[in-house]
């Protein structure tokens, strides 16, 4: 009985620590969760409510601090053109989520490498179209943020593939209609 109670207690700890938030676990690890409502708030604050916006999201702890970041890819005819759309990384902050990557002209897939820079996992982001060659870019954290565009420095072309976070054809859900 004691053991069972302890297991339940441990299993409910992550939800307890985020008490007051509506938490939804997704991505590869069921034990992890991010606050989808707070992330949607941050995305709406970033993009506004003009035009239709869809987003695909997974959670992954990029800086290994025990709290998952949200890795997001946007799909929107309003904001994005033939060169792709924004990829974002949002990290938990004391009052919501803070954007540490907001990269234009990205495509899926988005992957994580086993290497890291300044304590944050390196990312690989696809790009191409709209007059650009198709390729993959290595995105490295600089201490404050990841690069804002995969097609120019400090991002650099890479042949590395990494572990896919957001697949080439992910499920998008509506942010703003
Ligand atoms: Ca983290």
UniProtKB/TrEMBL annotation:
Keyword annotations of the record: Signal
Signal peptide residue numbers: 1-27
Name of this chain's protein: Lipoprotein
Entry keyword annotation includes Signal: yes
Superkingdom, taxonomy of origin: Bacteria
């Amino acid at each position: 009985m004691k053991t069972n109670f302890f297991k339940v207690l441990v299993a409910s700890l992550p939800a307890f620590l985020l008490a007051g938030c509506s938490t939804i676990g997704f991505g590869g690890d069921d034990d992890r969760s991010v606050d989808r409502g707070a992330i949607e708030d941050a995305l709406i604050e970033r993009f506004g409510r003009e035009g239709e916006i869809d987003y695909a999201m997974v959670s992954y702890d990029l800086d290994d601090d025990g709290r998952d970041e949200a890795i997001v890819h946007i799909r929107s005819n309003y904001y994005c053109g033939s060169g792709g759309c924004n990829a974002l990384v949002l990290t938990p902050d004391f009052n919501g989520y803070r954007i540490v990557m907001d990269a234009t002209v990205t495509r899926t897939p988005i992957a994580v490498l086993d290497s890291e820079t300044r304590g944050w996992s390196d990312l690989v982001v696809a790009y191409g179209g709209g007059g650009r060659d198709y390729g993959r870019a290595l995105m490295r954290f600089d201490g404050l943020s990841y690069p804002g565009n995969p097609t120019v420095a400090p991002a650099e072309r890479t042949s590395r593939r990494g572990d896919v976070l957001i697949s080439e054809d992910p499920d998008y859900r509506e942010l703003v209609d």
